[in-house]
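Aim 2, interim progress: modelling of the flavin mononucleotide-bound target.
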Amino acid sequence: MSRNPEAPIDSRFVQRWSPRSFTGKPITAGELMSLFEAARWAPSTSNTQPWRFVYGLAGTPGFESIFQALVPFNQSWARASSALIAVLSAQQTIAPGTTEAKPCANHSFDTGAAWMSLALQAEAMGWRAHAMGGFDAQALRQQLGVPGGFAAHCVVAVGEQGPRESLPQALQEREVPSGRQPMHAMVAEGRFTFSG
Ligand SMILES: Cc1cc2nc3c(=O)[nH]c(=O)nc-3n(C[C@H](O)[C@H](O)[C@H](O)COP(=O)(O)O)c2cc1C
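Predicted structure of the complex, ligand included:
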């Protein structure tokens, strides 16, 4: 499938992708902090910074806690990742310069921006980041002790990309960077002209 940009862009946007084959190379907590640091500088509504990350390094109880909440399909490949990150967000936030917690309508939107910064920082450091919506939210909340008032968005597997051949046959066939819908299907000038 084509992964050619329709307009000139920085190559890192098309080079980022979500493989499932990982080598298991250990990542340090320090390296992971660079990923979170990138996320920390994401823009957010009134600078409320609603994103929260809980991580576990491979081989630690924290990794197992997150891993246990993944659906079996994701468990089948994410075991070889170097770290798992639960991406959460606060549904109520206290904006800088204020004292009152207020509902944050854009907590999901802002946290999506932060996750993308994290993913691009991972790429810049030679790692890959693969988001997963396939997890049991109730189990994740319980495993990590996430209180009410916080949303659980996804789990991100971080690792060094491994060879396609190390995956089971069915996954090998899917281990290829995906394409995108054409630009005109998502960009219009002046008026909403999309069919769907
Ligand atoms: C929020 C979110 C949830 C996703 N859930 C899963 C998942 O549960 N399992 C999986 O293998 N991939 C999952 N993906 C990866 C997407 O399938 C992938 O990003 C998409 O096909 C585009 O491919 P690319 O990231 O390689 O460009 C998810 C991605 C996002 C952003």
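Helices lie at 12-15, 29-40, 61-67, 72-78, 107-124, 137-144, 169-174. Residues 17-18, 74, 131-134, 154, 177-178 surround flavin mononucleotide (CB under 6 Å).
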